[in-house]
Design brief:
This protein is 71% helix and 1% strand. The chain is mainly α. It has a domain of 100 residues. The strands form 2 sheets. It has a 3-stranded mixed beta sheet with strand order 1-5-4, sandwiched between helices. α13 runs parallel beside α15. The radius of gyration is 29 Å and the shape is globular.
């Protein structure tokens, strides 16, 4: 270890030690777990400062301690969060100091299996010596330990029976009623051994599939024997497992047409299962079987390699969770560092290439954009329409499966049919400035040799993972919340309970990191908004410590003040384009040289509406029936040759056909059959005219949004207002109907923008357009599945509108819709919340708050600051603003030093901003910190979803 790594490790361990010392100071000095944690921290601090990296024997001892300490602490009755702290110290030391070469792999496996043996023996001593699950676990651990130490890796003829037994052990344990935690230990040991010792080549790959699909056939037969022989999900899974087993044994790897058929089958099954509600473990197994067969058997060509696709999926999950988390937490999303994470992962598994990293970025950011695109809908329904059983867990008709299906279905159809919406117009955007894409492409092209950048991000990643992981485990062990300070100290300092959990400092490295990328000016403006929120709590709510944040946020003063600010934002965008011409790339370059000290490039110059006829003009011959027939015939016969003959240009009629299919599916699903409910008795019905009239506006809005982003890097467009106002006033649609429809249009637009943005990125990094299209499609499917699962799990665990996830953008949109509904009925929303006040004076009172918000926003506009930052500050918990301010302070300190190259600022649909995290060492470390919390939190969310299912 070099001195820098030693110091970094020492700082982390010193932080854990400080926590233990504080606990001892608060009176816990006599607890055995606290004493052990203190001794552990002291030992590892000394090792990190004065000892070389651990040898094999030391590694085994550390791993055994980490695995065995928890069950032993339960056995002797000393378990507390201090046990988790001690283990976190050991694992942090192990992760940072160990280098996983071949010998370290063997030592790691030996330590894990030795710990399993010890744990099994402890259970036998406790009286479970005759339990079959414990006996099997002990025998498996001993066998695997012997294989690890004295046997070479398994040969291909040995892989099939081992994989078969591994896959079938879980259903068999359920069938014979011996399932326990030792079943998971046994399966986990087998999986870890196979993953870390098997070298995947063509034949072992086939053996792997044969074992998996054989186990799938046996499992479906067991389900049929239990009485589920007539269930459609089990029948489909049985037929599919047999088919995949046959293909694995006797057929060559699938070609592109067969992969397209597999993908279509997966999508069809996903939508049918969602629509007819026959999700089950058998259906998930069938869906996963198709995906595994396609991934393992396919032989993709560069740059769509398995390495690039796998890395894109991993980074995509992290970025998708981070986007959803921030959208629900602060309402503004910053997608930070996908290219850096991609470079790190690609370098781990071989030589870095810019083309593969471009694929990774396309998958990750497309997934995030699609998942975020519908987040305006679900929180608004949960907060403002409590009669809707889809997002009210207390409702008598609430069904979690239906809610998950609703999220997947609305996201999926929007993403699939929105991807190619702007593809026919790609040539019109390729010569634009694209201020947010060109520096990102330069970063991807140059990062290959920058080892220091990767190291900086890795340091931030490891520190954040260690801190957040220890916090999450401590929360689970102690059954308490450590999300904010000082409320986290309420169990030991009763006076801290008087302060609500939404006031103080948020315990979130990610939020602090976002404060850095927001910039100190915006962080200060957000903090001012939170000061206003706190003053309302003190002066109007009597500083009530028991007040829930959702109740506080529904104060009419807060909503009207935010609404006044939002009017400023809209008018500012509308008026800013009057009398101004569009910027040429040369003018943009000249103008962007005049940046403020915040380092951001923020230019709001919307595209002229006078160009709409030119945008929508389509030549008559393009819609000739004969031409369309001929092009369809060419596409079916040889799609590659068709695209090559037209240099990758997709004809405009395909985009209109895609929109037409979207309208048809929407009308069938939400007007004719209506499978989802918006109350206990009324179905969720969206008028068919909304799809007919509103969907074409998505094309117009997406086009102008793309022009604004490509020319200025700034989003300028409000499709929600264009459609929502006439829909509410003239169609009299319900709240749930209009918010669902707007969420779907948002996802359509975001999918279209995602393809266009990454087509430009592909051109600058040397990746063909058809490869980018495939990557964006993979990302959209990732956002549809994993993104929907993350959104659902956050809702089911925390709810929407609470201090944990206030969803400020949904709050503002929902209040806007309710206001329009009230105006349609000649009543003003919020008056009923002011009890005892005459309507006229209540109206004047709330109108003054709206005027104050409007004037505040106008003053911010005059000073070159963003009113939307003040809106966010008013609507998010003050604890979050304080943490953002800490990151803003770091940003301010950095700005006092000689400036590095400028930070990249991009506003994307639904308030998404993408920053380049590579302009100096500090931003790289902080981007790692942001990604680290996302990594740990998404693991906990997915684990929670797994146990839920």
């Amino acid at each position: 270890m070099n001195d820098r790594t030693r110091r970094f490790l020492g700082y982390i361990l010193a932080g854990f030690t400080s926590y233990v010392l504080i606990a001892m100071f608060l009176g816990r000095f006599a607890e055995p777990a606290v004493i052990i944690a203190l001794l552990t921290s002291f030992v590892f601090v000394c090792l990190s400062l004065y000892r070389p990296p651990p040898e094999s024997l030391e590694l085994v001892i550390i791993i055994c301690f980490s695995v065995v300490y928890i069950p032993l602490s339960f056995l002797v009755g000393i378990f507390s969060e201090m046990v988790i702290i001690a283990i976190a110290i050991a694992l942090t030391y192990l992760a940072i100091t160990s280098m996983f070469g071949p010998d370290q792999k063997k030592v790691l496996l030996a330590g894990l299996f030795l710990a399993s043996i010890i744990y099994s023996l402890v259970l036998m001593i406790q009286g479970r010596w005759y339990h079959l699950d414990v006996i099997i676990a002990l025998s498996t651990a001993i066998t695997l330990l012997y294989f690890t130490l004295y046997r070479p890796p398994l040969e291909k003829r040995e892989l099939v029976p081992v994989i078969f037994l591994t896959a079938i052990f879980l259903p068999l344990s359920l069938f014979v009623d011996i399932f326990s935690e030792m079943t998971i230990v046994t399966i986990g040991g087998l999986v870890v051994y196979l993953v870390m010792t098997t070298k995947i080549r063509s034949e072992p790959r086939k053996s792997l599939l044969v074992g998996l699909f054989s186990a799938g056939v046996v499992y479906t037969l067991i389900l049929m024997a239990e009485g589920r022989w007539n269930h459609p999900d089990v029948i489909f899974a049985f037929i599919l497992e047999i088919t995949l087993l046959y293909l694995s044994l006797f057929k060559p790897p699938p070609d592109k047409k067969e992969l397209a058929a597999i993908t279509s089958l997966m999508l069809m099954y996903l939508f049918l299962a969602a629509y007819f509600a026959f999700f089950s473990e058998a259906g998930i197994m069938a869906f996963a079987g198709l995906a595994i067969y396609g991934i393992v058997r396919a032989e993709p060509k560069f740059p769509l390699t398995k390495r690039a696709l796998g890395t894109g999926l991993i980074v995509g999950i992290v970025m998708t969770f981070m986007g959803i988390y921030l959208a629900l937490k602060i309402g503004v999303v910053f997608l930070v560092g996908a290219e850096m994470l991609g470079a790190i992962f690609l370098s781990i598994y071989g030589r870095y290439t810019r083309e593969e990293n471009a694929i990774v970025v396309a998958i990750a950011n497309s997934s995030s954009m699609v998942a975020i695109g519908v987040l305006l809908t679900y929180p608004a329904i949960a907060i403002f329409d409590t009669d809707n059983p889809l997002f009210n867990t207390a409702h008598v008709a609430y069904d979690p499966t239906t809610t998950l299906i609703f999220i997947i279905f609305t996201t999926g159809i929007s993403a699939v049919f929105g991807i190619i919406l702007l593809a026919p117009y790609r040539d019109r955007f390729e010569k634009e400035a694209w201020p947010q894409i060109q520096p990102q492409a330069e970063f991807i092209n140059s990062i290959g040799g920058d080892a220091e950048a990767k190291k900086s991000v890795s340091i931030g990643l490891a520190a954040s993972c260690a801190w957040v992981g220890a916090t999450k485990i401590a929360e689970s062990a102690a059954s308490t919340s450590l999300s904010t300070v000082p409320n986290a100290f309420a169990p030991i300092i009763p006076a801290a309970a008087a302060i609500p959990d939404w006031i103080g400092i948020s315990n979130s490295p990610m939020i602090a990191g976002i404060g850095f990328f927001v910039g100190w000016k915006r962080a200060v403006v957000m903090a001012i908004g939170s000061v206003i929120s706190i003053l309302i709590w003190i002066l109007l709510e009597g500083a009530n410590g028991a007040l829930d944040y959702s109740a506080h946020l529904k104060r009419p003063e807060i909503l009207y003040f935010a609404l006044g600010l939002f009017v400023t934002v809209i008018l500012g965008d509308v008026l800013s384009g009057k009398g101004e011409k569009n910027l040429t790339p040369e003018e943009f370059k000249e103008k962007t040289q005049e940046t403020d000290e915040d380092g951001s490039v923020i230019i709001e110059t919307p595209h002229k509406t006078s160009e709409l006829p030119r945008v929508l003009r389509v030549k008559e011959e393009l819609f000739s029936i004969e031409v369309i027939k001929e092009e369809i015939r060419e596409i079916v016969d040889n799609p590659r040759e068709y695209l090559r003959s037209r240099r990758g240009q997709i004809p405009p009629w395909i985009a209109f056909v895609s929109m037409g299919i979207f309208m048809v599916i929407g009308i069938i699903s939400f007007y004719i059959f209506t499978p989802f409910m918006q109350s206990e008795t009324a179905p969720l019905r969206i008028h068919w005219l909304l799809f007919i009239l509103g969907t074409p506006l998505a094309l117009v809005s997406a086009y102008f949004t793309a022009r604004a982003i490509s020319e200025t890097g700034m989003l300028a467009g409000y499709i929600s207002d264009i459609v929502a106002i006439p829909a509410i006033i003239f169609f009299r649609v319900t709240f749930s109907a209009i918010t669902t429809f707007m969420g779907m249009l948002g996802a359509v637009q975001d999918a279209a923008i995602a393809l266009l943005v990454h087509l430009k990125l592909g051109k600058l990094t040397g990746v063909r357009g058809r490869d980018i299209l495939k990557a964006v499609f993979v990302g959209s499917m990732l956002g549809t599945t994993i993104g929907s699962l993350i959104t659902f799990q956050i809702f089911s665990t925390y709810g929407f509108g609470s201090s944990d996830f206030p969803a400020p953008a949904a709050q503002l949109f929902g209040f806007l819709v309710i206001s329009l509904e009230g105006l349609g009925d000649l009543r003003l929303p919020g008056l009923d919340l002011l009890e005892g006040v005459p309507p006229f004076f209540a109206f004047l009172y709330l109108f003054v708050w709206a005027i104050c918000g409007f004037l505040a926003g106008r003053e911010l506009n005059k000073r070159g600051l963003s009113p939307i930052s003040l809106v966010v500050g008013v609507l998010i918990p003050p604890a979050t603003s304080v943490t953002i301010l800490i990151g803003g302070y770091i940003n301010y300190r950095i700005k006092q030093k000689p400036k590095p190259s400028a930070k990249i600022h991009e506003n994307m649909p639904q308030q998404i901003e993408v920053y380049d995290a590579g302009y100096n060492n500090t931003s790289r470390i902080i981007s790692g910190v942001v990604a680290g919390e996302a990594v740990v939190t998404v693991i906990f969310v997915i684990l929670g979803a797994f146990f839920f299912i």
